[in-house]
What we know:
The protein is an alpha+beta fold. The chain has one domain (25-118): Head decoration protein D (Virus Head Decoration Protein, Chain: A, Beta Barrel), CATH 2.40.300.10. It contains two helices and eight strands.
Amino acid sequence: MKNLFxxxxxxxxxxxxxSGTLIPSKVLPVTVTGSGVVKRGTLLxxxxxxxxxxxxxxxxxxxxxxxxxxxxxxxxxxxxVVAFGGEFNQxxxxxxMEITIAPEAILDAMEDKEIYIAPMNPAPETx
Length: 127
């Protein structure tokens, strides 16, 4: 089991994943499959008839956005919290996933799932 504990959990650091004024809606726990740690901000998808979610790849349908890191190698720790709606920063998602999201995929997610993905400038750091 990998240790995902954060000693600074009580401190706030803006990572700019959530943008705009639309609060992430339909936030639920789901089972995430794959290998290794899947990072916060990863887009997830699933096939019809399946109950577990996996990392989005080009050509898949965007179903939700992962809100917390998940260790998929540990069967006791592979449940993650996801948002099925809301406004999210495209720059942060592409940084986390190391991909460029196709405009068609963004449009489909917006129309079908109420997941709004758009580039956003980072918030300034506080001192």
